[in-house]
Amino acid sequence: MEKRVTFRGWLLPLCLIAPQVIISAVFFFYPAGQAIWQSLFIPDPFGLSMQYVGLGNFEYLLSDKFYRASFVTTGVFSILVTLVSMIPALFLAVMADRLIKGAGVYRTLLIWPYAVAPAVAGVLWLFMFNTRVGVVSWYLGNLGYDWNHVLNGNEAMGLVVVASAWGRISYNFLFFFAALQAVPRSVIEAAAIDGARFWRRFFTIVLPLLSPTTFFLLVVNVVYSFFETFGVIHTITSGGPQQSTTILVYKVFADGFVGQDLGSSSAQSVILLIVVGLLTVLQFKFVEKRVHY
Amino acid sequence: MKKLVFGALAAATTAMSPIGAYAQTEIQFWHAFTGRLGELVAAQVDQFNGSQSDYTVVASHKGNYSETLNAGIAAFRAGEQPHVLMVFEVGTATMMAAGGAIKPVYEVMAESGAAFDSDAYIGAVKGYYTTTDGQMLSLPFNSSTPVLWVNRDAMEAAGVDPDTDLSTWQNVDAVLEQLKAGGEDCPLVTAWQSWIHLENFSAYHDVPFATQDNGFAGLDTELALNGEAQVAHLTKMGEWAKDGEFIYTGRRNEGGANFRAGECALFTESSAGYAGIKDEAQFAFDVRPLPYWEGVGNAPQNTIIGGASLWVMQGHEAEEYKGVGEFLSFLSSTPVQAQWHQDTGYLPITVAAGDATKEAGFYEENPGTDIAVIQMTAKEPTANSKGLRLGSFDQIRGIIDEELEGIWAGDKTAQEAMDSAKERGDALLRRFEQANK
Fold first, then answer.
1. What percent of chain B is predicted at pLDDT more than 70?
2. DSSP assignment of B205-239, as one string?
């Protein structure tokens, strides 16, 4: 039976939800509405005049084959960032969970990278992989591998994925670690008595029990890779070489804040909003079915 | 949202200003310089403030060139624009098209009554910032032009005579091969590839980069960078890249670090690279004129400038514009200009400042520092070499960078890459035309 706590009257519940509603309205609905409105115009940079073009901005974008290609780039980038940020995080969380001594120290160290701003993380990784003075590229050179992300698109993609995922590993680790604490010891012990080894217990018991957390992180990480990664791309590759790391959100930023093409930039953010909305709906519809709460 | 932030900032600044400041008319000047250049700008401003008591110029750093332009635009939209805004040459068409946001310099000077003679400015420099009928819209501030930097020690180490004639690309081609054969890993490196190897290349060979006099004659301009001369040059550079004779280091001036560390033999970079190279290079170096292809177009014509100019923004009081006029007039005065030219390696903006520098014996003491001036002013500019005036040019440069990377990586031929750059760039030009109807 479901239990509900009900309020008497309207005032108190309204007051309680007001902060959330106001924050959403100011920081989400208002800007999103502005973006939709502006996407119908070609304004000049100074706001002196606006040409109404209807859906012209969308037509212009979708007929551009480079823009369409950046959907694929974004897909590859998002899948990689999500995998690279979640799998190591889960592995580290499982390992940290097994520790008896010093778990706190490991935990703290593993959470640190989350405090580094994306653009700064970008600079750090760029410095390590700098083709001329980078430590990693120097070692790779010694091994006979000529690292050059300035001209090699796959290497550039690899670098921005790692730089974007690195800080997220900490975030994901935190959630996985907390979720692992909630897995009942008795179930695991029972399995151990039945003779299941560690990895068998992990795949048949722990992983299914973690599924709500995994699902939550999947959604959050996909949204992260779609929206919050332009700082890393901007500092490391500026979308290059050629267009190999031009993801949708970077193009929104570059066209709007470097190119001053606010009409196109707004139209792109509307498209991005729709894409991420659809993705989230799909995730809830299909992936969530496999989640056991 | 932005308006709110700017409003809050403005309120905070006003509240904190000391009362005494109101005795003088304040002039806001936003620029993009840090480091040594930032110090030199601050010194100029201090000197102006100390030289008279009616106006105070307040200089603020607003980030790099793109960020400064964006700050200026955002401020204008919020009604908080500065009096004087530094805008890089790439943003020229954007500013020019914004008639309601800017106040042309010739108008400011006429109204303020400050000393101003537009003939005193060097034609090749001011040409970039004047209307087709010769009215100056913004004041050239820092201008440079690309030259060839030579690491003499690296040339000798590879067994090449460092005094070899490098004035043509034909000669450079032969030298690159010798350098490579002599064991040099990085024979040629460049900064600002589009600016040097396409924009200046076109002007220098007197071939169009874009139609409508490179955009000077109208917004209905189209790119012409897929012409025969440009494609031939890029094809050759692609071959050099393939043979390891040209090393690509990035879209901006990343190659400067390689050259200054002594790792590369030849480096095409702005004349304003002088300060940094002189400061860091632990080897003997030379400045040479930018090479040209013998027999292509009318080379050598003249090269064009890069750098920034000062734009006066609309919406201030007449009294303040009077101060702006005084400040701009001060910046153009011979001693200030000559000093700036000698300190930075930027070109002098007036003929008199160049002459004063020559008379002071600066060029003799610092050989090669006059090459940029000579290269720019040897011939009267043509329609192809006056400069470029293209909307959305920052983005177009991004497209050109992408396409050039296709050539360096061997994925595209020069013709394919430039045809694609033209197609994509023209689409942006049409949008800009539409936005500024």
1. 95
2. TT--SBHHHHTTT-S---B-TTSHHHHHHHHHHHH
- Segment holding A123, helix H or strand E: helix A118-128
Q: How confident is the model at residue B60 (pLDDT cuts 50, 70, 90)?
A: very high
With residue B7 as reference, give the H or E element that holds it.
helix B2-16
Name the residue of chain A whose CA is nearest to B425's CA: A64
Whether B409 sits inside 8 A of A132 (CB atoms) is no
What is the pTM for the complete model shown?
Answer: 0.89
Question: CB distance B405–A261 less than 8 Å?
Answer: no
B393-408 and B228-242 helices cross at what angle (nearest 10)? 50
What residue in A sits closest to B399 (Cα-Cα)?
Answer: A242
Query: Per the omega criterion (within 30 degrees of 0), is the bond before B289 cis?
Result: no
**Whether pLDDT at A77 is above 80:** yes
CB nearest A240 (choices: B94, B251, B437): B251
| Nearest-by-Cβ selection for B436 from A44, A153, A263 | A44
Question: What pLDDT, in 10s, does the model give residues A94-130?
Answer: 988 887 788 788 888 888 888 888 888 899 999 999 9
Residue A49 CB-half CA count within 13 A: 13
* Residues A60, B427: C-beta atoms closer than 8 Å: yes
Contact B91, B384 (CB under 8 A): no
Could you tell me if B157 and B221 are in contact, meaning their C-beta atoms sit under 8 angstroms apart?
no
- Residue A50 β-bridge partners: A43
What does the pLDDT look like over B372-424, one tens digit per residue?
989 988 888 899 998 999 999 989 999 999 999 999 999 999 999 999 999 99
Q: Which helix (H) or strand (E) holds B268?
A: strand B266-270
Nearest to B94 among A30, A45, A240 (CB): A45
Residue A47 in 3-state DSSP? coil
- Are the C-beta atoms of B313 and B397 separated by less than 8 Å? no
* Lookup: tokens for B183: 């064991």
Residues 6+ apart with CB under 8 A from B262: B151, B153, B154, B281, B282, B283
Mutate to test the interface with B, among A242, A245, A261 (most CBs of B within 10 A): A242
Q: pLDDT of B94-116, one tens digit each?
A: 999 898 999 999 999 999 988 88
HSE-up of residue A257 (Cα within 13 Å, Cβ side):
16
Residue B8, pLDDT > 50, answer no
Residue B50 burial (CB count, 10 A): 8
Instruction: Say whether B73 and A260 touch across the interface (CB within 8 A).
Output: yes
> Over 60: is that where the pLDDT of B16 sits?
no
Nearest CA in chain A to B64: A258
List the structure tokens of B143.
């201008």
pLDDT over 70 percentage in chain A: 99
Q: Is A159 helix (H, G, I), strand (E, B) or coil?
A: helix
Residue of A260, A264, A268, A269 best to disrupt the B interface, most CBs of B under 10 A: A260
Query: Cβ A242–B403 below 8 Å, yes or no?
Result: yes
